[in-house]
Design goal:
The protein has about 120 residues and is α+β, with helices and mostly antiparallel strands. Helix content is about 45%, strand content about 15%. Helix 1 runs antiparallel to helix 3, helix 2 packs across helix 4 and helix 3 packs across helix 4. It is globular.
Length: about 120
C-alpha cells in the first residue's frame, strides 16, 4: 500500500502507473481496478509465459488524471487504510483491515460507491 501511495503522489498528469496484483476475483484488487478506472484508462495484463499458473496480473493505469476528485478520494482512502493497518489497533501496532467496513468516511464513500457500480 505504501508503494501505491508513493506512486500516486509522484505520477504526473497524464502519466502511467503499473501495479502487480493478485487474485482479481477477490475484493481488494477488484476495488483497486474500479477506483483507478475512475481517473485513468485501465488495462489488465497477464503474461502468458511467466504468470500462466499464478493468480498474479498487472494493472496498467494510463493517462492518470491527477486533478480528478476521484484521484483525491482514492488517495485519501489508501492513506487511511495504510495508517490504520500500520499504526491502528488497540496497541498501536497495526489493525487487521477488511475491505468491507462500516466506518466509512465521506471522502472514501465517493470512491467505494463507484467501485460497486463497475
Amino acid at each position: 500500500m505504501a508503494q501505491l501511495i508513493l506512486a500516486m503522489k509522484r505520477v504526473a498528469m497524464g502519466g502511467t502507473i503499473v501495479i502487480l496484483l493478485h487474485k482479481l476475483d477477490s475484493m481488494t484488487p477488484a476495488s483497486l481496478v474500479c477506483a483507478f478506472s475512475e481517473f485513468s484508462k485501465v488495462k489488465l495484463f497477464k503474461p502468458a509465459r511467466k504468470h500462466a499458473t499464478r493468480s498474479s496480473f498487472y494493472m496498467i493505469a494510463k493517462n492518470v488524471d491527477t486533478k480528478s476528485p476521484f484521484f483525491d478520494s482514492a488517495l485519501q482512502w489508501f492513506h487511511r487504510d495504510y495508517y490504520e493497518s500500520t499504526f491502528g489497533g488497540p496497541d498501536g501496532l497495526g489493525k487487521y483491515m477488511l475491505v468491507e467496513t462500516d466506518d466509512v468516511s465521506p471522502q472514501t464513500e465517493l470512491v467505494k460507491t463507484r467501485c460497486w457500480l463497475c
